[in-house]
Amino acid sequence: MKCPFCGDQDSKVVDSRHSEDGLSIRRRRECMGCQRRFTTYEMVESLPIIVVKRNGSRQNFDRNKILNSMIRAFDKRKVDVNDLDRITTEIEQTIQNTLEREVSTDRIGEMVMERLKPLDEVAYIRFASIYHRFQDAGSFRKFLEEK
Fold first, then answer.
1. Which residues, in sequence order, are CB contacts of 6 under 8 Å at separation 6+?
2. How do beta strands 24-31 and 37-43 pair?
3. Which 3 state secondary structure label does DSSP give 116?
4. CB neighbours of 128 closer than 8 A, spacing ≥ 6?
5. How many Å apart are CA 30 and CA 19, to the nearest integer?
6. What does the DSSP 8-state code read for residue 35?
7. How far apart are CA 128 and CA 147, in angstroms?
8. Which long-range contacts link 65-72 to residues 24+ away (Cβ below 8 Å)?
């Protein structure tokens, strides 16, 4: 880390702690050249995720779209919104951890369904019926028998 006072490249970490917001680490450093101290912040770099839609168009990832689709699936059902927020965060983290910059809506839909099924089967079926765009009752029945 370059010293802001003398420009020396050599410094040592004197103290580390989480910042108040919990999203970064605050580090107190001491320059090995001039012995002055300065503070740096270290945070995770999150690269933008691009969602590839079924029609081939691309748009930026929006976690609120996942959350809103799950809220619609739970219409008139008991659910803790914190559970839905946790699921949304898990999905977002999973996508970030793949290090791929593009993800299909199909993959996102599958990840949502994987997490909804153990939480509430009715919401799972509602989400699946919209996600898979069933044309008739027979294809819907076949889907349910396979799952």
1. 31, 33, 34, 36
2. antiparallel
3. helix
4. 113, 143, 147
5. 19
6. -
7. 11
8. 66/91, 66/92, 66/108, 66/112, 69/112, 69/127, 69/130, 70/112, 70/116, 70/123, 70/127, 72/126, 72/130
pLDDT tens digits for range 97-140: 888 889 999 999 999 999 999 999 899 888 888 777 776 777 76
The structure tokens listed for 58 are: 């691309």
Residue 108 Cα to chain centre, angstroms? 11
Query: Which residues are registered as beta bridge partners of 30?
Result: 12, 37
Total residue length of the chain? 147
Q: Give the amino acid at 119.
A: L
Residue type, 27: R
Residue 77 tokens, joined: 């059902």
What are the sequence ranges of the domains in the chain? 11-43, 50-146
Starting at the earlier edge strand, list the strands of the sheet with 58-60. 58-60, 50-52, 102-104
Token readout for 95 is 């996508």
Q: What is the pLDDT of residue 39?
A: 93
d(CA 112, CA 117): 9
Pairing of strands 102-104, 24-31: unpaired
How far is the C-alpha of 24 from the C-alpha of 14, rounded, in Å? 17
